[in-house]
Amino acid sequence: MTEERWHIRRMKGSDASEIGRWIRFLYPPPRALERELAQVLKRLLVREKISAWCVEEQGEEGSDGRPVAIGVTTFVSDALTSSYLAKPTPNLNLTLLEEERANKKGGGSMLTPEQVGRCNAADGLNLLILFWIHEQADFDFSKERNRQLFIQGKTILERHYRGYKLKQVLLEGLSPQTRLAMLSLGLKELRTFPAGTPMTLTGERSYRELVLTGLSREEARPDLPASPAVDLFVHRSPICHFTRREQQVLELALEQMTNEEIASALGRKVETIRARWRSIFDRMQTKGLLPEDDDNGMSTSPHVSKRRAALRYVRDHPEELRPYAWKDR
Question: Could you tell me the pTM of the whole model?
Answer without folding.
Answer: 0.88
